[in-house]
Structures are given as structure tokens and as C-alpha cells.
Amino acid sequence: MRIFLTGATGYIGSAVFEALVRAGHDVTALVRDNEKARRVSARGAHPVIGNLADVESYRGAADAQDGYIHTAFDYASGRGPAVERTALDLIIASAKRPRTAAARAPETRFVIYTSGTWILGRAPEAAYEDAPVNPIALSAFRPEHERLVLDAAGPRLRTAVIRPGVVYGGGGGMIGEIFKAAANGLVRVVGDGSNHWPAVYDRDLADLYARVAARDDGSGIYHANDEADERVNDIVEAIASHLPVRPDVRNVPPDEARAKMGAYADALALDQIVRSRRARALGWTPTLHSIGGNAARLLHEWRGAREEVRAS
């Protein structure tokens, strides 16, 4: 299939990009500069240099696609939610536009939107895909965007929302931040660390995107996490035990953390037990089942990613 992908060089998007290429899809990737364009081109994709906020920079590329996967988010401008709404409006309009392509194109197009489990808010008991939403401040805009995408579905358009938990693997994300802090000798934990983080390995998450894209019944909301129900303290301990010098761990009161980090502190202190029943019904099974049980492997990945950045 011909798939238009935003965020192809981002943390989640790069894993999704690799999964789509491996599956043989014809990927058009929105990227921000020539260097990123060369990277995706080398993997056999069609780069489009543009800016998520400037829909005219990719409007033409978004036409004549069979599917659309949105993983990008504009953190730099301070207008992330507004930029995302503009991009979603363009993507949905393109997906609904009558076809002019060859008859071999699939009859039904699809749109997949990336949300997150923070939309659920505090969830001390198992939360499934039909749980009511109660988003923390950082995710306050997501219910509207989820509904925009889901309501766009029709006879020739299926739409899906994927809600990843805390993504791990490679050199990025919140777990990458813990590896970095631990390597530097001090890990700060917001609150007492007894809260649970739903988590998912980046490659397993990417496999879910590829499955939803390929399935004619891939629609609606999908949670994505390994269901290990790990507490933050256990994650930090597992990482610390694999370092040559154990880092110090400091518990930071939520109010103090909030004063320094803003709303992100609430995300770090969030307690969530999340279940991915609908994803598993598609046959999706995570290959990694916890952070703690794979800390040595993940440390190796993190070090490798750091070396790649230094070499580039």
C-alpha cells in the first residue's frame, strides 16, 4: 500500500517507518530537512521536505495515498495541539477525497492517529480501550483529536487511534532519560516511585501500527503496552543494577517537581494499569514483556544509540 507517514524520523515514527518498509509498503515520509530526507530515501521511501504546521508543504504528497499514519508532534513551537489539529484536518480531507489513482488501489483508505495512555488519567485498576477518559494537562487536547479521527470514518474510510504507553527501546523516550540520568549518577523519581507505568517496546509498538494498517477490520481505539504493570521504583532498580557504578536515587515531592518541570511532573507521577485487549485480538503479542526483565538489552541499545548520535 501507499502510506503517508508523519514523524518518520521521530522516536515512535522511526520504528513505525522501519516496520512499514519491512512489510513492503510504499512509504511517503514527511521530513523537515535534507539530511532526514537522505536517511529515509536510503531505506527506499519517498521523502517530502515540509513543516507539519505548513500544510501546503505536503498537501500534494498527501493526495493519492492508500493510508495515513500520524506520529509527529510539534514540541518546538509551543503550538503543538493547534498544529496537530491543522495537520489532521488536511490528512482527513485527503483521505476522503475521491480517488483518481489506478484501479489496483484498495477500495477503503485508512487513517491512524497516535494518542497515548495519559488520556486516561489516573488508572489504579485495569483500564481497557472503552474506559472513560480523564486526561492529564499534557493530554487535554487529545480527546477532541481522537474523536475527530474516529468520527471521520465512513464506507470508504476506516480510522484508528493507537494509545502507546511509555515507549522504551533505543536511545529516546522517558526510559532513555532514566538511562542517561543513571549513567550520570543521579536518578530523580517524582513521588515515592510506587506508581505503575504502562510500557511498550518501540519495535512491538511499530508492529501494532503495521497490523492495524494491514487489517480491513483495523479501526477504533487500541492500547499498546506490555502489561507488565511495573512500578517506577522497580524500573529504576533494574536499570541501576546493570551499571558499573550504582546511581543515587532521589525522590522528589510532586509539588517541587511541578514547580521545576511543569505539567510533565504529573505525567511522571501518574499511576496506570492499562490493558491492550483489542490489540491482542488482532494477534498482536509483544516480544518484550517488561523493562526490568530486559534492562541489560535495553542498556546496550541505549549505549548504541548514543554512539550513533556522537558519530553523526
In words, what does this structure look like?
The strands form five sheets. This protein has a seven-stranded parallel β-sheet, sandwiched between helices. With 312 residues, it is an alpha/beta fold. Helix 2 links the parallel strand 2 and strand 3. The protein has helices at residues 11-22, 34-42, 59-62, 80-96, 142-151, 173-183, 202-214, 232-240, 254-261, 264-268, 277-281, 295-311, and strands spanning 2-6, 26-31, 46-49, 67-70, 109-114, 123-127, 157-164, 166-168, 186-190, 196-197, 199-201, 220-224, 230-231, 248-252, 272-274. Helix 1 crosses helix 7 (202-214) and helix 4 packs parallel to helix 5. The model has no long low-confidence stretch (mean pLDDT 95). It is globular. The protein contains twelve helices and 15 strands.
Features:
single chain, 312 residues, alpha/beta, 7-stranded parallel beta sheet, two-stranded parallel ribbon, 12 helices, globular
**Biggest sheet architecture:** 7 strands, parallel
Span between termini: 32 Å
- Which class of secondary structure composition applies to the elements? alpha/beta
- The coarse silhouette is globular
What is the mean pLDDT? 95
| SSE succession | EHEHEHEHEEHEEHEEEHEEHEHHEHH
The count of helical stretches stands at 12
Report the β-strand fraction as a percent range.
15-25%
Specify the helix fraction band.
25-40%
Cα gyration radius (Å): 19 Å
Are there runs of 5+ residues with pLDDT below 50, and where?
Answer: none
